[in-house]
Amino acid sequence: MRLTPLSSRRAVAAGTPGVDWRILAENIPVWQADPPMPVAGWDDHAQYAPSQGVEALLDVLCERERRRDVTITTECLLVTNGAFDGLGLIARHLAARGVRRAVCGGPVLLNVFDLFNAVGLRTVIEDFPVAAGGKSLFSLELGPSDLLYINTPHNPTGACLDERTVRAIFEAQLEFGFTLVVDLVYDSFVHDPAAAVSPIASVPDWRNVYAVNSFSKNYGAPGLRVGWLMAAPEEIEALTARIEWERIAVSSSAQHQAASLCSLGNAPLVERVRAGRELVSCWAEEVGAVVAPPQGGTHLWTDLLVGDAEVLADELMTDHGLIISTGANFYPALDNHVRIPYGVETALLQESLETIADVLRRRRG
Ligand SMILES: Cc1ncc(COP(=O)(O)O)c(C=O)c1O
């Protein structure tokens, strides 16, 4: 078992509770005021939820997607225990069907890389723009035994697909018969007007297309462990069977809470992320970091031009009680990069950015 440098730092922080640690590592947007949540009744605990998901949640998810021009019905939806659960279901389902290779727009989260490898897929990483770029798709020689995994807005780079590229991917997919898996866990946070708001709004044919989404980032609620998956109705049937034999159903109280959150909407979170992105983009310019403002997502991915980011992260932790996330959590690892989340509490963000700027100034003399 390997612990990432971030997990090791978090373990040290958890082991020394007396220190006033500042954690600027998770890219989960934080609500300014807790959203109201329905209290679970005993009925929720006294029976299994339907394996596909409770009707109330399927209905509001369908509405959410329709508002984003995605034309689906509830038969195209499956409730999961978050997006990783959805990716796991899809990966096992596709591996059992003869898919042998996963081509990922990278860098990718280590968990995603490990998951695809663990189900026996040969996993290769192409730079996000290459994997997503229409013409260069040909060079990847994708065929029916391949899946193409694209996360847009992308973690960590924030890059997003534009409409032209989305069309090129769907055309290539129809021609070459590969499977497309789209990870949309940051799709509420598209900042660049040139980016496609929802790439799945223009799916010409849902056969061989799967999309995962979740309440973790889009609604700031990773603890709910509720996500959803979209696919052709016959695929949803097959995946629902998999849910049934693997875990029966997702917690019904969590599903009702997710339904309530979805109806409420996430406007305050979107606004906080927008303001945080502005703050962090100005900061990046002031400290001379190598970066363009992120097209989407809840994080800034940058090279701070002081060499190995692990050394910087160690100094921030040891001398300033500040824990940050680095390129080591991704595959391939980018040694000089850090990922700064900007949907966090404003005071935490401002103070942490000041600390990092001080350290950078001192380092550069
Ligand atoms: C790209 C991407 N996909 C999936 C996930 C997992 O989300 P969930 O909490 O819904 O499992 C994350 C979380 O960081 C992520 O960044």
From TrEMBL:
Gene3D superfamilies: Type I PLP-dependent aspartate aminotransferase-like (Major domain)
GO molecular function, one term: transaminase activity
Cofactor(s) required, per the database record: pyridoxal 5'-phosphate
Keyword Transferase part of the UniProt annotation: yes
SUPFAM superfamilies documented for this protein: PLP-dependent transferases
Enzyme Commission code(s) on record: 2.6.1.-
Aminotransferase class I/classII large domain sequence ranges: 146-356
GO process annotations (BP): amino acid metabolic process
Keywords: Aminotransferase, Pyridoxal phosphate, Transferase
Top-rank EC class of the record's enzyme: transferase
PROSITE patterns named among the record's database cross-references: AA_TRANSFER_CLASS_1 (PS00105)
Recorded family membership: Belongs to the class-I pyridoxal-phosphate-dependent aminotransferase family.
Record's protein name: Aminotransferase
Lineage: Bacteria, Bacillati, Actinomycetota, Actinomycetes, Pseudonocardiales
